[in-house]
Every structure is written in structure tokens, then in C-alpha cells.
Amino acid sequence: MLLSGIRVLDLTNVLAGPFASYQLALFGADVIKVEAPGTGDLARQLGADPRLNDALLGASFLAQNGGKRSVTVDLKSDEGRQTFRELVAEADVVLENYRPGVLARLGFPWETLKALNPRLVYCAISGFGKTSPMRERPAYDQVIQGMAGMMSVTGKPQDAPLRAGYPIADTMGGLAAAFGVCAALVQRERTGVGCELDVSMLDTAITALGWAVSNYLIAGTEPPRRATTT
């Protein structure tokens, strides 16, 4: 497998982050899902089957967490933070999708992670990125779809903008993160040191709109809403 021998600490929740680490797992990485005791990933309670939700194995959770190992760590306790330090020292990748600054407030800014493991690749996924003036705002897929302009080009011309029928912004953000991690691992093989990656779902969504955005910015043509039927 292409990523055999690569260990990923997956601190992510719901979709964009878990989808990213799932792609790495599909390539053979050893993905360890690090969850908070008692609650875990919110997606454990999401999905169309109530029985699975009650068992904390919601369909939404199963869809992007297959093939991963799991451990509970309380990052708010001294014991949990020590356990996490030990995990980081042996890992190749740390992946998280908290709001920017949350992991640092728990005691693990990038500088600390790098000191624990200079070869570490650290990837943070958020709605707007850590340097954006909107970095403190939570972001959901439909928010990103709207702000990126995806909704403005979806639907019938006479109707209001529509969101896509599936969480495309989360999915694109996860793919971008997985791609970035793979590129960073290649660089690490050349340099021997890791790096920090800051993945913005909004940036990724706008990139996916490249055709429509280019027509507007370069040719001055505002893209119309389109639908498969009229």
C-alpha cells in the first residue's frame, strides 16, 4: 500500500476531517482516531438508522471511518495530554478540524508539536483558515457553499440559489487536506522535517468553482444559475 508505515492521529469530527483521514487510510496509512471520552465524534449519532445512532455507530460515522483504529484521550486532563504527547512522538501526521486556536489552547500549538516530533506533518482544517478575519466563526457545509458562490450557480434561473444535494464543500475540503498531507510527506522524505498545513474549506470551494470564477474575473461574465432541467 502506498502509505504503509505512515501513522496518522485523527482528532477530527463529522465529515471534512474524517473524510481526509479516510482517504489516507484507503492508501494504507495506520489511522488512529483520537476521540474525547464520553462523547466522541458527533457523527456517531448521525444517520438514517436510529438503531445505529443509539449504538454510537451512525451511518454517517461508518461512511468515513472504516479501517481506522480508535482511542479515547482527554486533552483537558494532565494524564490525557501526556498520552497525546507520547502518541505525537511516534506519529507521522496529526490531523484536526477544530476552530483555529483550539488545539493550541489545549496545550498543543504547532511549535509544541514540532518540538515533540520534528518530522511531524500537522494539518488543520477549518472553514476559513487560521489567518482569515473570519477564523473564529464556525462553518458548516451549507455556509461554505453559499459564501463560495456554489449556490449562486445552482438551480433554475428563475428560482433562488440552491445548495447541492450532498455536502460538497466538506468533501472537497477533506480531499484537499489529504492531498496536502501526501505532498507534505513527499517533502519530508527530501528534507527530513515536517511542516504545518492550514486548509480552508472556503478556499477549496472557490478553487472548485475555477471555471465560473475565471469567466467572471477575467472575462467579466457573471455565471448564471444552471439546472439539469428547465
Properties at a glance:
230 residues; alpha/beta; 10 helices
What does this structure look like?
The N and C termini lie far apart (46 Å). 33% of the residues are buried. The mean pLDDT is 93. Helix content is 40%, strand content 13%. It is built from 10 helices and 6 strands; from the N terminus they run βαβααβαβααβααβαα. The chain is globular. The chain has helices at residues 16-26, 50-54, 59-62, 78-89, 102-105, 110-116, 141-148, 168-191, 201-208, 210-219; strands at residues 7-10, 30-35, 69-72, 93-96, 121-126, 195-200. The protein has a single domain (7-219), classed as 3-Layer(aba) Sandwich (Rossmann fold), CATH 3.40.50.10540.
Concise summary:
This protein is of the alpha/beta class. It has 10 helices and 6 strands.
CATH topology name: Rossmann fold
CATH architecture: 3-Layer(aba) Sandwich
User: Order of SSEs, N→C?
Assistant: EHEHHEHEHHEHHEHH
Rg for CA atoms: 19 Å
Number of distinct beta strands: 6
- Unreliable runs, pLDDT <50, ≥5 residues? none
Approximately how much helix is present in the residues? 40-55%
Largest sheet: 6 strands, parallel
**β-strand amount:** 5-15%
Shape: globular
Q: Figure out the total of helices.
A: 10
Structural class category:
alpha/beta
